[in-house]
Amino acid sequence: MPDDQAGAVSVGELWRRTTNDIGDRAAARWLCEVATGLSGSEFATALDEPVTEAMVAHLDAMLARRSTGEPLQYVLGQWSFRHLDLAIDRRVLIPRPETEEVAGVAIELTAAAVEQRGSAVVADLGTGSGAIGLSVAYESPLGAVEIWLTDRDPDALDVARANLAGLGQRGAGVRLALGSWFDALPDHEVFDVIVANPPYVADGSAEVEPDVVAWEPAGALFAGPDGLDHVRTLAAGVLDRLRPGGWVVIEIGARQGPAVTELLEHHGAVDVAIRRDAAGLDRIALGRRPDIG
Ligand SMILES: C[S@@+](CC[C@H](N)C(=O)[O-])C[C@H]1O[C@@H](n2cnc3c(N)ncnc32)[C@H](O)[C@@H]1O
Q: What is the mean pLDDT of residues 217-237?
């Protein structure tokens, strides 16, 4: 839209025109919310208000990026995950709905540990935007949980740090650490829950959508010929870092359930189970360090 028309256009009209342009009313609303700086009920009550030139310029810049195929989440610069609005950009994987379920399992197991012992220590390895670990922090009893967010990519950790800043008091127990898997964790600590959504796509897999490969960080996706390189490392080392009775929760690919069950049991985990996501696909592997030993 030419900038000189901005004053004559209302927020509602901007939304209607954007919907016509991109053919998606919900996405158009999110784009207009970011462009106008109005969200939720503020946006809904401002539909008759005039937009400014700066708002229109911001929207045009976002639409230009979207037209190149850049994912909506990166263009918006934010995406919701459970109860959080996370800052998102190309340094991190876009958090997925199935990962909300992985976080839910970690939150339940953390709550059980707090119930039992009064407090819990948790690690989210390969945290990316911080989606899983920050959700655990946000949804756990205040002051009861120490949670370590780690990544080997310093750029990803910067995004997690920015998202931590948005948690306020709820983020008080969160620690950030750079390094590969367990190397990032303090030597002295044992954990009640270790959760990870590691890269688990087989190198060169044709099942990944071209847009994902083109836009999302390769270091967050690919993990060797069968996609299990990182899961092997996690399964081999995790029991040593868990408190007796502590749980590991790993997001996996839909066809990796049997192999990951075998890996976790081989390394001594008990009560190993594979849970399905809302789409009915194997997605969450969990297992426990035996209570004794
Ligand atoms: C699939 S993404 C998951 C990101 C985020 N946890 C989520 O669920 O949206 C995997 C993350 O693991 C990180 N990663 C890859 N290799 C790693 C390693 N060796 N040690 C620690 N983190 C690693 C990547 O940088 C990336 O942020």
A: 96
